[in-house]
From TrEMBL:
The chain crosses the membrane at residues 64-85, 97-124, 144-165. Keywords: Membrane, Transmembrane, Transmembrane helix. This is Uncharacterized protein. The keyword Membrane applies.
Length: 180
């Protein structure tokens, strides 16, 4: 069962990792204005990856490798937070179908982000001898991961707003009792 304490703990871990990725991710912009592979919702191919990795140069590829390693715990933090937060809200509100869909989105994100991370690390390791099949797998993983993440990120504020409205309604309708 999800508790408020579990939600807060997993949120803090998720937030710290997300902030670190955002902070360190911006350092790649000095090597290329093209977004990393992780953000290519339309996917990518062999030529795109070769061009991007060439633009990065040795130092940029080393930074990308560091960022990808920093990204390794992110899918697990998001999965734990999503399970706890959406379980604490939607499941508690007896909307188990919505909770299951959101939990499946969290699982999809986590699985496909792990696949993507593994493939990106492998591509960085083998560059310039890239494997087109590996790039295709990574590209599909990126697209599925991003679609799942969009669903999750859409439902985070929706869930928070509903939770706030329920809390306000409870405060308004709950009779105030005076201490004896």
């Amino acid at each position: 069962m999800s508790t408020r304490k579990k939600v807060m703990l997993t949120f803090v871990l998720f937030l710290i990792n997300a902030l670190a990725l955002t902070f360190f991710g911006s350092t790649l912009e000095q090597f290329s204005k093209t977004a990393k592979l992780d953000y290519q919702i339309k996917g990518y191919d062999l030529l795109f990856v070769k061009h991007l990795f060439t633009e990065y140069g040795n130092l940029g590829r080393a930074k990308y490798q560091f960022l990808t390693l920093l990204d390794v715990p992110f899918p697990f933090f998001l999965l734990a937070f999503g399970r706890n937060y959406f379980g604490y809200t939607w499941k508690k509100w007896n909307y188990s179908f919505i909770w299951k869909c959101l939990f499946i989105a969290c699982i999809c994100f986590s699985v496909f982000d792990c696949i993507e991370n593994f493939c990106v690390l492998q591509m960085l390791h083998t560059f310039p001898d890239l494997n087109a099949s590996e790039i295709k797998i990574s590209s599909v993983a990126t697209q599925i991961k991003l679609i799942s993440l969009i669903v999750i990120y859409i439902f985070l504020p929706i869930t928070a707003c509903i939770q706030l409205l329920k809390w306000c309604k409870l405060k308004i309708t709950r009779p105030h009792t005076k201490a004896s």
